[in-house]
Amino acid sequence: MATCPNPRHSVGVMLNRSLSSAPSSPIFGRKDDITVDWAISQTLVGYDHAVAAMEARALAIAEGKAPELIWLLEHPALYTAGVSAKPTDLLQPDRFPVFQSGRGGQYTYHGPGQRVAYVMLDLTARDRDVRKFVAALEAWVIAALLRFNVDGQIRDGRVGVWVERKTPGLPQKEDKIAAIGVKLRKWVSFHGISLNVEPDLSHFSGIVPCGQTEHGVTSLVDLGLPVTMDEADAALKAAFLEVFGPCQTAAPPAAPTA
User: Fold this and answer.
1) pLDDT, tens digit, 9 for 90 and up, residues 54-71
2) Active-site entry in 144, 210, 220, 243
3) Chain centroid to CA 23: how far?
4) Which uninterrupted H or E stretch holds 117?
5) pLDDT digit string (tens) for 150-170?
6) Rounded distance, CA 176 to CA 218, Å?
7) Least buried of 60, 158, 185, 202, by fewest C-beta within 10 Å?
């Protein structure tokens, strides 16, 4: 089940506010008090390895054999094609490895300096509402960005998180700072979000990112914020608590062996 819904609904609006108005309880939390595992890979993770590990973990979660997991990592430079990707949007097919992905969405770039968060959550234990789930992911990113005084926004018809760029004497424009693409199997999610902390933004020129030709991409560092990956992770973890509930440190998953 791939998703690419209209993001305009209540969950996204709830956290598009100041931190002082954050909800007192998670807005997409579990129905029980079980915490979510939270793992960070310190070295680059190959895409095939990550997909195999995600699929194995999602199956184990669905079977009640493993807890939910948020896995933070960086990939080597690569492009992925979601289920809605158009071949003409791959402008430079020989620039980086290209992977077909079962997630929702179109073409996107992953690479060093970009924080990828793979989200393996059991929607049966939360809410079997796919639109609400995607809006909660957007709300999570928005709440994390607020910690750096960045006003992340959502737009009708455009999944992901955007920022307005206002330069004196120039027309106002909007750039994408975070992409979202997920898949569900047996109501357990995998794939997730990617937040641009300090990637090489020129690498996006090999594709039409998410099919958008009228808008660009940006990052926290591109916005003039010298944010480290550790600082971005801390913001994501704090914001996750607001949206999805408590988490605990765990080891990154290993890809299944043949």
Assistant:
1) 999 999 999 999 999 999
2) 210
3) 21
4) strand 114-120
5) 999 998 878 889 999 887 887
6) 6
7) 202
